[in-house]
Specification:
single chain, 315 residues, alpha/beta, TIM Barrel, globular
Length: 315
């Protein structure tokens, strides 16, 4: 069970927070741009550094040029990553316009060359995280992934939504199961796991070798603890918010902090009633410490209660 990579979210501070709360067995970096990594010193890049407790740690690489991705992995290899993941699932237009992320689903030959070059670059395992093909073409998905396995990919993670789905439709877990039945390498499932019951249902329904959790863990970073222990987490969400801010101060350079703080708040504040109001209050000040103080003041003053079922889709 691992923390899925999320752009702007799964940086060092957040990974450390989730690690401290417990229950996670696998961590991912944010997307690392292969063009940048292949030409610069990764030891000076905060996106490439670990947070001590976030182990084992997978470096997720985004790009579309086999040689550039290979060089990026070679530069990262001395840093001690446990595996490397090739992003073939990101649906963001800013990524896809370069032919990266989910665009690679339409370029099976390029995708295979990327995996082949990645295998040449390291002795560490190579993972691929991807999503459903357009129109949920299951036969095409199986053929695409089998091509990657033939080139030596060691693990597949499937988020069974297509680019056009967004979050409007439930994840098609049956596609995870189809890959699990067709492949000889481990298959992890990702999508629509928001509580212990969901995690158990996914495993039973898909027979996946493991689960990655994204949005569910951003809203409730203690979700992994609940899945492991099978009961409600007994802590205080406000304490988690304050701890996150202290870790952000410890790990993130000052120019990054406010943006990372607000990205986190956009999801995490959904743990309370009137989360839109709380976010507006926080966004109105520049200092994250002042914002946290104002959030706590609003919660106490108006008696805002934690919600039992947060909203997990983007609004």
């Amino acid at each position: 069970m691992g923390l899925a990579p999320l752009a702007g979210i799964t940086h060092r501070a957040f990974r450390r927070l989730v690690a401290e709360l417990g229950g996670v067995c696998l961590f991912y970096t944010e997307m690392l741009n292969s063009r940048i990594i292949s030409t610069q010193n990764p030891w000076k890049d905060p996106y490439c550094l670990d947070a001590c407790l976030d182990q084992p740690l997978v470096a997720q690489i985004v790009g579309g040029e086999p040689e550039v991705i290979g060089r990026a992995i070679e530069r990262l290899s001395p840093m001690g990553f446990d595996a490397f993941d090739i992003n073939m699932g990101c649906p963001q237009k800013a990524i896809m316009k370069h032919g990266w992320g989910a665009s690679l689903l339409g370029k099976p030959d390029v995708a295979k060359r990327i995996v082949a070059r990645a295998k040449q670059a390291t002795t560490r395992p190579i993972f691929v995280k991807l999503r459903s093909l357009p129109g949920h073409d299951l036969d095409g998905l199986v053929a695409f992934v089998k091509g990657l396995v033939d080139e030596g990919v060691d693990l597949i993670v499937l988020h069974p939504r297509s680019v056009e789905d967004g979050f409007k439709r439930p994840a098609k877990w049956e596609e995870i199961r189809a890959l699990r039945e067709e492949l000889d390498v481990p298959v992890y499932g990702n999508g629509d796991v928001f509580g212990p019951d969901d995690a158990l249902k996914m495993i039973r329904h898909t027979r996946a070798n493991g689960i990655l959790i994204g949005r569910g863990a951003v809203v409730r970073p203690w979700l992994f603890w609940e899945i492991i222990h099978g009961r409600k987490w007994p802590g205080d969400p406000l304490c988690v918010l304050k701890r996150f801010l202290s870790l952000l101060t410890l790990y993130s350079p000052p120019p990054y902090r406010r943006r990372q703080f607000l990205l986190f708040l956009g999801w995490f504040l959904r743990n309370w009633e009137h989360h839109h109001h709380l976010f507006k209050v926080a966004k109105g000040v520049d200092d994250p410490y002042e914002a946290t103080h104002l959030i706590e003041k609003e919660i106490r003053m108006h008696g805002l209660n934690p919600v039992n079922t947060p909203i997990y889709f983007k609004i």
